[in-house]
# Entry
Amino acid sequence: MTKNAAIIGAGIAGIASAIRLAVKGYKVDVFEANAYPGGKLSTFDVQGASGTYRFDAGPSLFTLPALVEELFQLAGENPTDHFEYIRLPEICRYFWDDHTRLTAWADPDRFAQEIETQLGEPADRVRTFLKDSAFKYDITDKLFLHDSLHKASTWFNRGAVRGYLNIPRLGVFGTMNRANARTFSHPKVVQLFNRYATYNGSNPYQTPALLNIIPHLEYNIGAFFPKKGMVSITDSLVALAQRLGVTFHFNTRVEEIVVENGKAVGVRLGAGSRPYAVVLSNMDITPTYRKLMPTQPAPERTLRQPRSSSGLIFYWGVNPNAARRSFPELDMHNIFFSNDYRTEFDYLFNRRDRLHNDPTIYLNITAKNKPDDAPPGCENWFILLNAPANEGQDWDAIIAQTRQDVLRKLSHNLGVDVAPLIECEAILDPRTIEARTSSAQGALYGTASNNRFAAFMRHPNFSSKIKNLYFVGGSVHPGGGIPLCLLSAKIAVQIAVNSEQLTENSDICVNSND
# Structure
């Protein structure tokens, strides 16, 4: 008898879960509160005087493409028939207000030499750092990312023993900044590698040095760009799921996860309840408990963990022709660094009432590689600033002030008044992130990783108190971002499928807007 699966939420982890369950023979329904799939990994257009500008709404960096390809391969399909991407020759261009500029080449040796040429930091130090990053990743990948931290079997396999033997080298006990300051002599190099703490919404002055595994993903494996934009990750996987028989129900909000006698037995929709044998929630863990299971005991210690950073995004349609110039100094990924990084993070995680007046600016321009994302001669500027999670701040005032700070900083670095070049604008702030994606307080990565125990405080991919209840997405293990969300689906579905609780009549429900 065919087993039924209901997936509530079409975020990237929910889509991946649907594919994995369908491959295992489940008849899968996906319920999504929004009118579109992907959650943060979606797209929209803004109309300007020169024409239409297309923007990827959220994630703009693509790493570990093998995790996407694996889903096609599981279904017996050739990934290149449905999803194409390129490896970027440049990872990022860095700018400082003193007019120092540096290109982070994808080739590690060329990148190391660039740092030595521009900043005087010995290239061998950079090469050694990247080799150490690869070593840390190799040690922790299978242990922390591909398996549940909350299953005893994970801690007694060969990979775990190898991890125990290398604990002194993993940077568990010191901070990222302290480790980087010991490795590099130039403060700009320290700042460059400190920024990788923001990849999971954390503070480099607090987060463990273990997170120095992140540069390995870009410099040793590569940074990539989907030929049809980041949203094509969502589009291609939704199409794959549909070919496998998955049904998507948009504009359909789940009101409750129905629990009876300590077991998840279904979900309640506006039109009534539907029975399911298993519920798998991709919704942020906090609203999953607070809104969908308000009468069930909640893991309060986990839910009270400090939130990760959020984001403030300006989407600008820019017409350089208005200034009779172009921007060849910009590439697809660009960073304009703050002059006082420590103070910026103090505002982000301690003060939290506003953004620092000299913020670090991430500028993404997909039109550099996909020209049809903007009218001819124009560019789509996606400007992301790290922002505190929403705690009721005066966001309208913060946005107005931050916009002026951004314009001032960009104009200084680019040598032209940017404001008159903006044809159209859209804005996303922590309030709207929370409303559109059900991310508690608009936090982009669930809880912050600002202490050595943070990974263990993330909610597991299953419930230890409610049978047949599982969790995926950025707020649970192993964390936020596209690769980790895809891995959360792999872990949760593996546990669910292997569970003795699944029967021939089981139904599975995945809940999210991640």
The domain at 109-220 is CATH 1.10.405 (Guanine Nucleotide Dissociation Inhibitor; domain 1). Confidence is low (pLDDT under 50) at residues 500-507.
